[in-house]
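Loading example: each entry is read as two labelled lines plus one structure line.
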Amino acid sequence: MPTDAKIGRIKKLASKTLVMAAALLAPLTVLILAANVNSQTPLETAQNDYSFQTVKYQEARAKYENSIANHQAFNTAVSKNDAYLKAKDLAVQINNVYISYLLLVDQRSNLYDWGKGRYFKNEEHTKIEAQIKMLEELRLEAQALDTLEAAKPYLEKLKKHVEGKTLPSAYMLLVKTDMSQLFETKYDFEQTSSQLESYLEKRVTNENRPIYTNWQSLAAGALEKIDVAIKTKEEEVSKINPNKQIKANQNSYDFNTDSQRKLFTGTQDIFREIIGSI
Amino acid sequence: MTNEDVNLMEGDIITEENLDEGNKNTEAKQARLDTNSTEDPKMNPNTLKKKPLHAKLPKLITIFIIFVLLITSFTILAVISSKIPQEKIEDPDIFVTSPKPTAIISEELRQVYNRIDEYENKLRGLETSLKDYPPPKVDFALKF
């Protein structure tokens, strides 16, 4: 049997080892976590925040449902007070969801160079910032709710605002971001084609000139199709009513640029192929 | 010497013999015990099992703790690194070249290739659109 002295020495050694290991690992873990946080892009941060607010909303909704079921069962002042507090939290959280959604949509628009198209990013940012400010004011109203009965008309007012202002603003920014994306990609196609032509023109021989000429017409044809498709879509966008109501329970928006995007598919092969041929 | 004296003497002699034997046994036992306890302590069955464990127990605990900590830190690093979006690494296109020794790629051609690579990255960006940002799913209804 080990003696008490030996047991004591074992315990001391184990605790010293633990302390040393903790002293080594703690700063290392903090550094790794900090690096992970700092390595997120603004878009990723906005996406994470939106996901977080959505989860918080779902929790608030569940808590409210429970509290109102309790109140309906017991109908006491305490149960009513609890339902009122949960309704207030729910109202605040709904605002948070839409604020984070607008911030996310705004961050997405920063990915693209709007200078190649017809829209102005700063104008759209200003509109989104105004919408965020309105939601923040509505959130203050939610925090100031004083009875359970006041929560219902407040949420009806919030819903009307979201459908008439918030979602239409988000929608227009998303539409114009998509269009700017197409304009930018088309510009890149033109620039790449032009740079390639400058390089190849000096190296084309009589023997491979037909290949080069056919390539030029192929690239020009692809660019023309893209140009026509984007212009058609641009006209469609100009006809969208910026005050168009968007239902809060809508699952998706009714705008897409799939067919325009498909026209770009394979265009990089046009460039790679001609380099191999000349 | 009388017979009584002789008997007494014999008794003494017998007694002495008995005592001697007893002493010898005792001495032999003592000698054995002494041999077991002092000359080779490792042969004591009580200490034979426990002494190596006594010596190794602190070291075993230390090694176990360090091992657990290493596994934990490796797991944390693996989980965190898995969250970092991995860059898509594509195999470069293989160009069929002539058997002649190839010339060193010119700076101009390198720039052309870089431009095409950048364009290709832009095309990947077209995979995300408005469809990826649908309206939030929120229920405004309040049951009373």
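The helical segments of chain B are 3-39, 45-83, 107-125.
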